[in-house]
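ok posting inputs for the heme C job
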Amino acid sequence: MRGTLVGLAALVIVGCEAGPPAEEAEEFGGLRLTPAVLAVFEPIPNDPPALADNPITPAKVELGKMLYLDPRLSQSWLISCNTCHNLGLGGVDLLETSVGHGWQRGPRNAPTVLNAVFNLAQFWDGRAADLHEQAMGPVQAAVEMNNTPERVEQTLRSIPEYVERFTAAFPDDLEPVSFNNMALAIEAFEATLITPGSRFDDYLRGDEDALTVGEKEGLALFVQKGCAGCHGGVNMGGAGYYPFGVVERPDAAILPPGDKGRLAVTRSASDEYVFKAPSLRNIGLTPPYFHSGGVWDLGGAVAVMGTAQLGTALSQEEQATVVAFLQALTGRQPRIEYPTLPPHTVATPLPDVGLRSETILH
Ligand code: HEC
Ligand code: HEC
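and the output
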């Protein structure tokens, strides 16, 4: 049985140029980093994955990029997807919880869009099955872009270059300019927002020197303490739902009692305070942490995980060692050439910034 398991792991790892053989693998804190141990992780592929029912074409990706960056999808013309998922900032807004239409503060921290295509579902509670379904949410959410599908379609149809680009991206559609196709184009663009080439990926692909000794110690601790059980796979997370507070519930600043997580999606009592284990890819770039954004410091977040999820108090030194490893998960950030967005016309619905009293300060 044991032989079979190791054999299987070896098979899995072959695809990515196996690391050292088990007997030669280096040992850290009593753990040998063998291919079998490392098989719980997977490097990020160099190319975007295929999407179900949404072929990725250059025309669609370019259109999706424009829509992602175009604030005119919002009622105010101030807020684009990039406002809260800034592609120059690791795909986040660096706020505890996001601020949207009319300066309203939303209830949750913005997760990164980078590598989101690898998650089993979208949002902290997994309420959208995929990026296509997800993209329709924020455009309509009152605290985010506060728009309607009809007004978005009216806006896009009023801009000739968008009509041309939708027609080229969706050549088989009778009505190419639609809210649904907007979401499909954004999904295709988001699928390209992957970050291969982190030093950890190089290590997984067999470059033993890609990680320093300290980082390998952090990796060994990450596995030994049990972090990898929920943060494994290609995204180091994003593959399952768990209670936040398996062993001990964090305090209200980190786990606000009013947000019951996946309970609102499944209505099942066992899903109270259950959240998607987020991806730890590029985690060094995306503070503050947790769905509440309640922790700014990565070492602090690791400590919370130790006590809340594993019932282990990690020492300061252990926290720092794990953090050193987590910093090696930063991959190549997508290079975005900023598009010139097509001008609006007299037929375009004008912006409403949604502020009740307008103060002019300058
Ligand atoms: C006002 C800020 C804001 C804007 C604008 C916004 N988002 Fe988000 N986004 C968030 C927040 C907050 C969440 C988490 C909400 C939750 O889980 O309930 C989120 C979640 C997501 C996720 C899920 C990621 C994951 O790992 O679960 C994706 C993908 C995403 N947004 C893409 C987009 C796209 C595409 C747009 C534009 C159409 C957009 N967002 C506009 C704040 C924003
Ligand atoms: C039982 C599953 C489980 C285990 C074990 C676990 N985590 Fe988590 N992790 C989660 C969940 C679920 C969240 C999301 C919590 C929330 O904000 O709702 C999370 C969030 C995090 C975050 C914050 C990510 C972000 O984007 O905000 C970090 C960092 C993290 N975990 C690291 C670790 C480390 C390091 C360990 C080991 C010491 C660990 N986790 C063990 C499930 C787990």
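notes: DSSP finds 13 helices and six strands in the chain. Confidence is low (pLDDT under 50) at residues 1-17.
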